[in-house]
Amino acid sequence: MEVGFLGLGIMGKAMSMNLLMNGFKVTVWNRTLSKCNELVAHGASIGKTPAEVINKCKITIAMLSDPAAALWVVLDKDGVLEQICGGKGYIDMSTVDPETSCRINEAITSKGGQFLEAPVSGSKQPAETGQLVILAAGDKALYEAAMPAFDILGKKSFFLGQVGNGAKMKLVVNMIMGSMMNAFSEGLTLADRSGLNPRDLLDVLDLGAIANPMFKGKGPAMLQNNYSPAFPLKHQQKDMRLALALGDENSVPMPVAAASNEAFKKARSMGLGDMDFSAVFETLKVLKHSS
Ligand SMILES: NC(=O)C1=CN([C@@H]2O[C@H](COP(=O)(O)OP(=O)(O)OC[C@H]3O[C@@H](n4cnc5c(N)ncnc54)[C@H](OP(=O)(O)O)[C@@H]3O)[C@@H](O)[C@H]2O)C=CC1
Ligand SMILES: O=CC(=O)O
């Protein structure tokens, strides 16, 4: 099967490489073109623009940073819209808000193309090992046509109905994850400041009812101030912001998420936006130093 792939950041690079290693023909494009080189060394072709990739491939996947990037790649000069047409499918796997997804859907379908949103749950390592959870919504026929690729990229795919539902599900999941990361950071700090060994806390948590892969995976690195980015903090803050907007629209009070968003904003203001989202832990250390 041949696919196009737009956006070779942490996730896009891992996902497109995975497709390539599993026998797919892949044509890649990235805004910073040099990031295509590693993929090309493994057999990928390059498209010089998003339009060129769409022209070449029947199905094209995008994995871009945020709503502005997702819209730019579709609507701007040399963008997806210039070549999309009947018989071609566009799948946006970026995490965006439902409104952005609906705008892209309208643009693509107005030219006769098929559109599927398919954000993913799972980070760099699940992307490398094909263990993502795919949250698709939109054109069911495109979902079925893309299943061979989804089977490589993910451990489970959900079809959630109309466009917007995938984005909503992803934002709800990441709102919970971001809030959990803040509670975890406060717990580690409280254990330390009250005279406990935070490593003991990790062991206790791991044996109880709130054990989870995130605490287990991130905890030891956080205690060593290691925030090598798997999920960049700036993207987690974007997801909190978009989830809070969804809460506004639906009159859902979300005080825990709102406080977590403030902590992520604080971390961004400290220059930690490109670090892993677990670097929000550092905001609590600043409080210690200033007291
Ligand atoms: N990392 C993770 O654990 C996960 C991330 N996600 C979501 O996946 C998406 C990608 O994440 P990730 O790979 O980590 O992010 P990165 O920051 O590593 O990569 C972002 C990608 O978007 C491109 N981009 C940014 N702005 C523009 C623009 N204006 N025009 C064109 N391209 C642009 C970048 O291009 P360039 O290289 O030129 O900067 C790069 O290819 C995000 O929506 C994120 O929320 C979802 C699940 C897990
Ligand atoms: O969006 C991030 C993730 O880990 O899922």
UniProtKB/TrEMBL annotation:
The keyword Ubl conjugation does not apply. GO terms for cellular component: cytosol. Residues 164-282 form the 3-hydroxyisobutyrate dehydrogenase-like NAD-binding domain. It catalyses: glycolate + NADP(+) = glyoxylate + NADPH + H(+); 4-hydroxybutanoate + NADP(+) = succinate semialdehyde + NADPH + H(+). One of its GO terms (molecular function) is glyoxylate reductase (NADPH) activity. Coiled coil: none annotated. It comes from the Eukaryota. PANTHER family: GLYOXYLATE_SUCCINIC SEMIALDEHYDE REDUCTASE 1, OXIDOREDUCTASE GLYR1-RELATED. Catalyzes the NADPH-dependent reduction of glyoxylate to glycolate as well as succinic semialdehyde (SSA) to gamma-hydroxybutyrate in vitro. May function in redox homeostasis and play a role in oxidative stress tolerance by detoxifying glyoxylate and SSA generated in glycolate metabolism and GABA metabolism, respectively. This is 6-phosphogluconate dehydrogenase NADP-binding domain-containing protein. It comes from Gossypium mustelinum.
